[in-house]
Amino acid sequence: MRIIGVDPGTRHLGWGVVNCEGTRLKCVGCGVVHMAQTMVLAERLVRIDQELGKLIGQYCPDEGAVEAIFFAKDAQAASKLGHARGVALLALARAGLPIGEYEPTRVKRAVVGRGRADKVQVGLMVKAILGMGDVVELDASDALAVAITHAQYSHVDRVMRRSGVLR
Fold first, then answer.
1. What are the domain boundaries of the chain?
2. Which of 7, 43, 63, 137 does the annotation list as catalytic?
3. Which helix H or strand E contains 145, and what residues bound it?
4. Count of CB atoms within 10 A of residue 81's CB?
5. Does 67 qualify as catalytic in the annotation?
6. What is the pLDDT of residues 15-28, one digit of tens each?
7. Would residue 62 show up in a list of annotated catalytic residues for this protein?
8. DSSP assignment letter at 68
9. pTM of the prediction?
10. Is 7 known to be catalytic?
């Protein structure tokens, strides 16, 4: 199974693609879409949609995962983040992908073991889990962490469905 994870943002949108073979995970690609500060919000949203469309076409994921909004310091920031999340969800849904949504604390618990981990800790654990030696931008490692979380939760769901616990 191949999963694309998205860490939404209107200035920096992280993405990461992970292959799952049983319980083994491998990074296929990752990066950050940077948007110029001079771009208006609508232009940024169009760019998010275009870039995610290209990535989906290039990597052909089977499923998608997006980080959910947990809290924001101000309403305007939350609103902009919500717009970016909406476009990401739309791009994944348009491609017909099943989508998982995970709160930041759940992602941090799944990857680091505690929900209060900082971005640097998440990045280090992502590199360790995926066996990466490369330097990865923090927004990209956050997106990979979302994909890893989805792989863990979807694996558990598949096992439970096979055993008849879930339908």
1. 2-163
2. 7
3. helix 138-163
4. 16
5. yes
6. 999 999 988 999 99
7. no
8. P
9. 0.91
10. yes
